[in-house]
Each structure stands twice: as C-alpha cells, then as structure tokens.
Amino acid sequence: MSERPLTGEPLPLDLLNTTWNGSAGLVDFLASGDGVRAFSLQHGVIVDTDVSAVTASLRQARQAIRTLLTDRADADLTSVRRLLQSARVSADAQGITLHAEPEAHLLAVRAVHEAVELLHDKAERVRSCAHPSCVLWFLDTTRSGTRRWCSMATCGNRTKAKRFAEARRSES
Ligand SMILES: [Zn+2]
Known about the structure:
Radius of gyration: 18 Å
Number of helices: 6
Strand content: 15-25%
Shape: globular
Bound molecules: zinc ion
Distance between the termini: 45 Å
Order of helices and strands: HEEHHHEEHEEH
Strand order of the largest sheet: 1-2
C-alpha cells in the first residue's frame, strides 16, 4: 500500500485523490482491500465484510465525481443519479442522516452527495492541480483564493524549476 501524496481534502476530493501519478505511472489506492479499508476508516466507515462491493461503489463514485467536477454544467449525470438512487435520507432533531441500500454503497453515496453540494456552494474553489502531469484535486481555502498546486513543495516547485530552466535557456 503506497503512501498517499495528498490527504485531508473534503470527502469527494479525497476520493479523487486515491489515484495519483507515481514514479512508475498511475497508482490506485483502492486497488487493494487494505487501501479501501484505510480510506473508509479515514471517513468514519468500518469495512468488515463485502470489501469488493465497497470497492466497486467507491470506484463508480470516483468516476462520477471526476466527470461532474471536470465537465461541470456539461457533465453527464447518469452515474451520479444511479449512485444517488441507493440513498435514503432520514431526519430527526440532530439533523439529516444519509443511508444507503445496500449499506456497502454508503460512503460512495455520501461522496457523490457532497460533491454535488460542493459544486453548488464553492464551485470556483474546487480545482485540480495546475501541474500538467498531476491529477490531484483540492478545495482552495486560502483567503485570496489563488492556490494553484496540490502542494507547493512538490508540484509548485517542479513548475517553478522548469520555468527557471526555460528562462535561462531563452536568455543564452
Ligand atoms: Zn500537483
């Protein structure tokens, strides 16, 4: 199980960030049951049975959310709607709770639901990293709203170093 390069983003973006470009190509954190369990646990869901059903639904949600966030108003919402069909909502004095039928879909349903909300509330703050070979996403919570990189230490510096090299080359 590889170390994830970026964690701590809201659930829908954190789900997108389970794939990234590693040194040997695209890595999928959800490719192993351990990865699926660890990801779920980070979002408060214990997966003890049916790992494959959870994996399948999370992968569907990941694809649906990527389409939604990339294509925005033009997005094909078929898979988003299909996932939300397994959702049930209940309410009491504490608030609204989301359920899923089957239960294994719960985290995927939550992720899709939150992606739609995120896009509704903060669309212009939801971004993918500006580095061309990076596939990570983040919610820009800076006051200025000018965050461009998943991480300044990796993608930000890689890009700056490249620009510096190009500038030197064009000078000589
Ligand atoms: Zn990046």
